[in-house]
Amino acid sequence: MSPTAAANYSPEALAARAEITDRIHLYAHCVDRRRWELLDQVFHDDATWWVSSIGSEKGWREAMESSRTLFAAALDATHHQVGNVLISLDGEVAVSETLCTAYHRVRADAPLGGMFGGTGCAYDLLAGGRYLDRWELRDGDWKLARRRVHSEWRHQQPAADGILSTYPPEARGAYDDSDQSTPVILRYRAAQHQTSTPE
């Protein structure tokens, strides 16, 4: 094994890769389960967030609020599936590329225009894109310093009547702590409390 490869797969490097990958997955969970408040476990306070279909780079909190408002106004359900994660480490900085395929159920009464523009009829939107990220290790935590989301393809079709309503509520999940995933995110809440509580 070359010295470079050994450095990139040392126990410390493997721990860094695992932490970064964990936070990539946490982001998808936060968006799909509307746990917006946990995104501070993904982004550093001064991180920026740019989305190609919107075209403006914002501080992540501003971008999050825009997303929260848009999702509430336009979407009944979302499902983000991430994979093909490539991570390049360089000391306390890392860059990564993550492929994402996302499903969105757009409501009939969604506002006109924008990323999830209403048409007067409900439709299903499938989209593919990439997260091109910069991560920084600060105070012992790997978090995003910059996220750039590049949309690469979109496909939409009319929503089949009643499809979502045929699944039991527990299968579709919930947007509060009645969701079955709640035990999974308790450690992130604990970390959030630790970082927000003065010594």
From TrEMBL:
<feature type="region of interest" description="Disordered">
    <location>
        <begin position="160"/>
        <end position="180"/>
    </location>
</feature>
<feature type="domain" description="SnoaL-like">
    <location>
        <begin position="13"/>
        <end position="148"/>
    </location>
</feature>
<dbReference type="InterPro" id="IPR032710">
    <property type="entry name" value="NTF2-like_dom_sf"/>
</dbReference>
<dbReference type="InterPro" id="IPR037401">
    <property type="entry name" value="SnoaL-like"/>
</dbReference>
<dbReference type="Pfam" id="PF13577">
    <property type="entry name" value="SnoaL_4"/>
</dbReference>
<protein>
    <recommendedName>
        <fullName>SnoaL-like domain-containing protein</fullName>
    </recommendedName>
</protein>
